[in-house]
Amino acid sequence: MSDPFEKIRHLTAEKDFASATNPFALFGKWFADAKKSESEYPEAMCLATVDESGMPDARMVLLKGWDETGFVFYTNMESAKGRELAASGKAALNFWWRDLHRQVRVRGLVEPVSGAEADAYFNSRPRGSRIGAWASRQSRELESRFALEKAVAGYAAKFNIGKVPRPPYWTGNRVIPLQMEFWHERPFRLHERLVFLRPDAESEWTRKLLYP
């Protein structure tokens, strides 16, 4: 009778995985791999929040920047996610890279980016997207598609060919991780899981392997 684990006895954690002591460095390697392997949106991530009633909420957003201070995305702070982020100051992220069979989960605190950082990113967006940020009352009820198109036309006329400033309610958020988990698919569902933990943003990371 063949051994069902024969195919995986020779498999050990990848070198980068096994020796990693800095979760940001490991994320950087995995993200670089994802940008090479994923055909669309390697920067896509699921953002999870909790509303005022305690109900969880989740949606896909795009990572717009990251470093060892955290992971940055942008939104209308008057939207549902903006209000939830402001109320709780906490969030979770999930990256899933199908072609690599890898996942990264992040849990942590949320803080706004600086005004200068938000301005720089806003000004890098296409003009139509900047006008759209003014026209969309994000997450609130829309009476008709025509109402949105009318608002877009109105702001396009208002700004004409001049500069489109950043709306005061539109900015970036930085998720400062207190937990980062790396998951790599393996045969027979004997996946590899490595989690990094710290009690606060100033503390050193500890690492643990988890059962799959």
Keywords:
nine-stranded antiparallel sheet; 212 residues; Pnp Oxidase, Chain A
Distance between the termini: 26 Å
Count of structural domains? 1
Main structural class: alpha+beta
Mean pLDDT: 92
- At CATH level 2, the architecture is Roll
The major sheet is characterized as: 9 strands, antiparallel
- Which word captures the global form? elongated
User: Low-confidence parts, pLDDT < 50 over ≥5 residues?
Assistant: 7-13
The radius of gyration computed from the alpha-carbon positions, rounded to a whole number of angstroms, is 21 Å
What is the CATH level 1 assignment?
Mainly Beta
- Let me know the number of strands: 9
Name given to the CATH homologous superfamily: Electron Transport, Fmn-binding Protein, Chain A
Which oligomeric form is depicted?
single chain
CATH topology: the name is: Pnp Oxidase, Chain A
Could you spell the SSE succession in H and E letters?
HHEEEEHEEHHHEEE
How large is the count of helical segments? 6
Residue share in β-strands: 25-35%
**Overall helicity:** 25-40%
